[in-house]
Amino acid sequence: MAYGFMIEMWGDRALFTRPEFSVERMSYDVITPSAARGIIESVFWHPGLVYRIDRIHVLNPIRFTNVRRNEVKSKALGSSLRSAASGTAPLPYINTKEDIQQRASTILTGVHYVVEVHFDMTDKAVEADNPGKFCEMLKRRLRKGQCYSQPYFGTREFPAFVKEWNPNKPVSVCEENRGERDLGFMLYDMDYSDPRNIVPMFYRAVMRDGVIDVAGSEVHR
Asked: How far is the CA of 36 from the CAs of 46, 81, 130, in angstroms?
């Protein structure tokens, strides 16, 4: 038996970085399925289940603004960490005072979504695990506002607020989002089936009357 949920997500700002812009950050027009999955996992995660995003309802008009953010220009390399762990090199570190730089970012403002999602059981579920148990745990955490970590929209500076959406309540669409709008290819998720070769997956996001049918879209690797 499949269990589906409607989860409301909103916040003042969001940044879902497009991978083709390597220096200055540019956000996608809407939340990506992988970002929506990450927000839900911050509320309730278990190795015995995996979330599948079905549809994304875009309630607010899509608005952009430009900001400048402080970022570090370096990152810790996995090879350096492995060398430090084996004792052949000192522990690497990043001095944010010396390594900081300002970068321009084009971000979203006033984001508001309703995400339709279901979950599937995985082979890591034990005998005591079952869909009904996970369903009640997720609903309880959503209603109480509990989370394992603070949900955020793309970057930690932009917190996300999450709650359960009443499935009997219609999802209203703003006039600006009516009609059909092709948002182009967007990141769908990352394929971790081979840890040595993690592959990004993309899909063609088309918004029709404020709704993106993620489940019905073709995924490209």
From this structure: 16, 30, 23
For 54, the token pair is 């079905």
For the purposes of burial, counting CB atoms within 10 Å of the CB of 131, is it exposed (0-12), middle (13-18) or buried (19 or more)? Answer: middle
Distance between CA atoms of residues 113 and 89, nearest Å: 47
Q: Is 128 helix (H, G, I), strand (E, B) or coil?
A: coil
Residue 62 has pLDDT above 90, yes or no: yes
pLDDT digits (tens, 9 = 90+) for 164-187: 999 889 999 899 999 999 999 999
pTM check: above 0.70: yes
Q: Are 201 and 34 in contact (CB under 8 A)?
A: no
What domains can you pick out in the chain, each with its CATH number?
4-70+103-216 (3.30.70.2660)
pLDDT average, residue stretch 69-92: 78
Outline where 105-219 has alpha helix (H).
Answer: 131-144
